[in-house]
């Protein structure tokens, strides 16, 4: 089969790779579309340590089943599917408790690190365990279906933030209000997930005014450039003076984290989605003295069916986020464009 392989830091080769064959309990999927994830861009130069060459990256994908292994009964050749980005065992305590994203045996598609190498979906075909597959409607394009993975991440993050009438300081006298700090692809999906889940007022913060304009179109009540002075105080005022009910940090850096913490009310929740930097300082006393809850959000855990449904019904719009669809053979140039500052790209989808 043809595949796009990372052969060295920031170096790619498009060419032949061994065609996979499904074993018992597995299916062979002809990949029809695969999105370039921010983690792929951050990992291709070796910084993250999770894309050690040689590796076929790619985990945001959809396609058609072309063969099934022994014992596969729920799927057949011709089925249109998308799939979880994480292979989980289904047997460990975390999996049985529903936390498949925390599986001790988890392997992420398209990732190679010190513990494992698992080739992904920037290829014509990929073999997958049957239990991570999800059916997609005939009317849903493969390009849109490839968004199921990032949409599920946005939904999972929102699941971790209780609305005011569900939290420790419950009140029914106010509208639910939140801020999304970072209006990149995942941030814009978190914003839409909040609106789809019924949060009344959602604000967005970013350094890029064009992304803020898009956030406004996608439902943000107001948008703010991160360079504005006294921004935390402004956001707190929008929450009634004490602060917003929740914030979502979707960058993973010191200044956005500081803003996310300082903008919420006493007893509020800060959901940490971005992980650009492995370590960041944060205002400890703000968290302790105001009893703020910090929650890390890792991947997704059961949100795929809702993600597919919301993409299909348009309650979460993905078409405005799709920058370009390009042939897999041109993948290397789009990876390099993706790391150039000010490239204007949100999501590039490659088609084998």
Keywords:
alpha/beta, 7-stranded mixed β-sheet, 352 residues
Describe this structure in words.
The chain is α/β, with parallel strands linked by helices. Helices cover 25% and strands 28% of the residues. The protein has eleven helices and 19 strands. It has helices spanning 38-43, 93-96, 142-145, 148-159, 185-196, 209-217, 231-238, 254-262, 284-289, 304-313, 331-338, and strands at 2-8, 11-16, 26-35, 60-68, 80-83, 86-87, 107-108, 111-112, 117-118, 125-129, 133-135, 177-181, 201-206, 222-225, 244-249, 264-272, 293-296, 322-327, 347-351. The strands form five sheets. Strands 3, 4, 5, 10, 11, 18 and 19 form a seven-stranded mixed beta sheet that branches. Helix 4 (148-159) crosses helix 5 (185-196) and helix 4 packs across helix 10 (304-313). It is globular. The N and C termini lie close together (10 Å). The model has no long low-confidence stretch (mean pLDDT 95).
